[in-house]
Amino acid sequence: MELYYCAILILNLLLGAVGAYFVVTAVWGLRRSRPLGQFQPRYRFAVLIAARNEEKVIGDLVRSLLAQDYPRELFDVYVIPNNCTDHTAREAFLAGAKIIEPAYPVRYKGDALRQAGDRLLAQGRYDAFCVFDADNVADPRFLAEMNNAFCSGAVVARGRNKSKNPTSSWVSACYTIYFDMFNLFFAQARENCGLSANIIGTGFGVRTSFLQELGGFCTQTITEDVEFFAQCAAAGERVWWVPRAITYDEEPESFRLSLTQRRRWCSGSMEVAARYAPQIGRRLAERLRWREMDVVMFFAAPFAQALAVIPLGMTILLAPLPGGPALWLLLLTGGLWLVASYLVVTALAVLVCWRCGCLRRGMAKGIVTFGLFMASWLPLQVACLFHRTTSWREIAHGRRPVPVRKAV
Q: Alpha-carbon distance 271 to 287, whole Å?
């Protein structure tokens, strides 16, 4: 029994160290990021959108991109329809996009991006590439802010993700809080520390020269965004955070659909971590820096969350044995821990909403249920630890009103 308690103590200390690290770095997010300089339009952009059965929403994205506050001659919008059974290509073309039909079968979104990227890289016409999801809507200043970032020295940059439908359901409200929390306590915190902001979702850009060094878009997993971030980390390139480059994203409204989407994210992140661990490890061994260590901590986080159930599970199993913890004490401690955790997470949701300007009517349902939303990540992480999803499942989108831009 003593050996058991010693092992559990060591595991708890390791898991606690991971959690403490993210808490400490998150504090830097409370400081405002230094604004980028303002530059004249210089970069010529190729905007890529891989789309599968997105006829309801693709037009809004294309129109928002063509309405950018950026010289029209300095960017082109390309839609790559793949595996479609609807009229995605027609709607994109009518909205004003150029269409690139894949030359060979597409399994994942990364396959579509690679085919389009290789074709456009060969032309040598563009200075940088930007990537969006079909259900996005781009803020009118997106390309101008990316131009500012690249002129300031960025090689890879990601913008701020916000929600199209923050109050349509409690699930979409929770997504809104979650992404605002990630933007504030991860991306902004790391920008303030000189670390690398993670690429999640879309609304990111990359210089053509660096993309050529990587061999184009060559991701092979179901989370091409996280994999591209891992490739940047392995190459020693920092991802800049550009908060004024805003992308609006449509969030799931049902909990079941949310579980499907987030399981794909969890599974893909773990697969990327396992696949790129040797490369990132070699990078860390060559030059021990905080930036590389931070990337290691990021990819370790899903595994740490999944392993967090081991101490609790073992304690419950050993409770009936002689010398084990008293069951009533275990239940009392567990109940108090759950209540305290819920209150802390709810308070965090209020802080995030207040700090990010979304503390308004309709968000109360998200604040109250945010604890449930965050707790639901744990079984997903555990499930993906033993069985990973390898197939991409379509997330149906519905047409949403294009949000009105507000001052940031």
A: 25
CA distance 408 to 327: 52
Cα radius of gyration rounded to whole Å, the chain: 22
Please choose, from the candidates 391, 395, 389, 390, the residue with its C-alpha nearest in 3D space to the C-alpha of residue 52.
395
Give kind and range of the element (H or E) at residue 56.
none
End-to-end CA distance of the chain: 57
How many C-alpha atoms does 99 have within 13 Å on its Cβ side? 16
pLDDT at 51: 95
**Rounded distance between C-alpha atoms, residue 85 and residue 386, angstroms:** 33
In three-state form (DSSP H/G/I as H, E/B as E, the rest C), the secondary structure along 23-45 is HHHHHHHHCCCCCCCCCCCCCCE
Residue 170 structure tokens: 């409690």
Architecture field, domain 1-389: Alpha-Beta Complex (3.90)
Helix (H) or strand (E) holding 273: helix 255-286
* Residue 101 exposed, middle or buried by CB count within 10 Å (0-12, 13-18, 19+): exposed
3-state helix, strand, coil in the chain (%, to 5): 55, 10, 35
Q: How far apart are CA 147 and CA 144, in angstroms?
A: 5
Three-state DSSP state, 241:
strand
pLDDT in tens, 245-298: 999 999 999 999 999 999 999 999 999 999 999 888 888 888 778 888 999 999
Query: Quick one: pLDDT at residue 321?
Result: 60
Q: Where are the domains of the chain?
A: 1-389
Q: Tell me, letter by letter, the H, E, C secondary structure of 368-407.
A: HHHHHHHHCHHHHHHHHHHCCCCCCCCCCCCCCCCCCCCC
CA distance 281 to 199: 20
The pTM of the full predicted model, rounded to 2 decimals, is: 0.89
Packing angle, helices 327-355 and 309-318, rounded to 10: 160
Residue carrying structure tokens 């890879």: 156
The low-confidence residues of the chain, meaning pLDDT below 70, are 1-2, 4-5, 312-330, 390-408
